[in-house]
Amino acid sequence: MKADYEFTRLEVPGATYTYAVDLNNVDEVVGYYVDGDGVTHGFLWSDGKYTTLTAPGAIDTRAFGINNLGHIVGRYNDADNTQRGFLLCNGQYTTINPEGSTLSAARGINDLGEIVGLFEDGGVVRHGFRRSSTGEYSHFDATPTASVTNIIDINNAGDVVGTYVDRTERHGFFVSSTGEFLSIDPPTSRPTNTLAVSINNYGVIVGEYDDLDGHHHGWFLSGDDHTYYTLPFDVPRSSWTSLDGINDNGDLSGPYIDGDTGINYGFFARRRKP
Fold first, then answer.
1. What residues contact residue 22 under an 8 Å CB cut-off, 6+ apart?
2. CA–CA distance from 182 to each of 147, 176, 274 (Å)?
3. Would you tell me how many other CB atoms lie within 10 Å of the CB of residue 97?
4. pTM of the model
5. What order do you get walking across the sheet with 216-222 strand by strand?
6. Which of 26, 81, 91, 122 sits in a 20 to 30 Å window from 226, CA-based?
């Protein structure tokens, strides 16, 4: 798998910590970083240049998703440290916050403008949400006993992926546009820390998991019935890798920890053509 990709390290200048998340089909990458004063900002990496993203009045901003129109979603903490989702479109920030929620985060956006994420309604349960292009919200719980459901990405067909916590175990999940539900746990994974993080328009899913020895890797899931796993995926010389983004070209993005220095970087991996 490593031989098929050309890796680029992403490190925001002056950052002590860089975490890359999603990318689009023109290889623009979004994520977040911690500056020298300990403040967290979002970033956009495009054509090799970094742009800082800070929501108005925010003390913490994190970018999680970007579509092929360049629209970005994420979450921010306001001056009262209340966490809300946001949409950044044509330079304008819009708060994404399901009615009645006390906490929210927007995680993914497709080219139709549909947004997914999670919210808390004042209780102890966190639910997934889906926001239509016209602003209507619906919510989703992966199982009746799930304490956390987080919808992390959505493709143009309306298929979604994410993660849920059922009792003490964290699993990934896939829900098709027709309502088919699949719980995801890669082979040789611990049933405590699996996330499905991104799905492209060909239905290929990527994510992260802990193996039986406690090491953290990325994984692929493909095939018409989503049964073909490719794992583990690791950035060369890393001690920890997550796959957080895959575009329609098969290019990848995510965070990793350098095995020599212990520093957290982002990465962009361009798939080499055969």
1. 29, 30, 31, 63, 64, 65, 66, 108, 153, 198, 244, 245, 253
2. 18, 9, 32
3. 22
4. 0.96
5. 195-199, 205-210, 216-222, 228-233
6. 26
Split at pLDDT 50, 70, 90, the class of 124 is confident
What is the CATH code for 2-271?
Answer: 2.120.10.30
The tally of CA atoms less than 13 A away on the side-chain side of residue 120 is: 11
Cβ–Cβ < 8 Å for 74, 85: yes
Compute the half-sphere exposure of residue 114: CA atoms within 13 Å on the CB side of its CA. Answer: 17
φ, ψ (nearest 5 deg) of residue 67: -100, -175
Task: pLDDT band for 14, please (50, 70, 90 cuts).
Answer: very high
**Total residues found in the chain within this entry:** 274
